[in-house]
Amino acid sequence: MAEKDLVRDTAIKALFKLVEGYVYIPIAELKEAALVVYNILEQYGLSIKFSAINKHQQANTIGLLKKIRI
Questions:
Q1: Residue of 18, 16, 22, 48 whose CA lies nearest to 34
Q2: What pLDDT was estimated at residue 27?
Q3: Inter-CA distances, 4 with 9, 10, 19, 35, 62, Å
């Protein structure tokens, strides 16, 4: 279980870094979308665990992330 936790935590940290990079892109649409995602990540941090979210919420969250195309 600890190995899976490490994999999850590493993926979330990588997501933070990816979004941080988009925050500095000089394309307004991408920067604005990145700021929205960045604020969500700041709010939830490493407590993000899709297994704790029901399937409907998970689908909605993934759909929103796809709409902002990050």
A1: 22
A2: 92
A3: 9, 10, 23, 28, 21
Q: Give the CB-side neighbour count of residue 23, counting CA atoms within 13 A.
A: 12
How far out from the chain centre does Cα 37 lie? 6
What global pTM score does this model have?
0.56
Q: Which of 2, 51, 43, 3 is nearest to 19 (CA)?
A: 43
CB 30 within 8 A of CB 22: yes
Mean pLDDT for the chain?
77
Q: Mean pLDDT over residues 17-33, rounded? A: 91
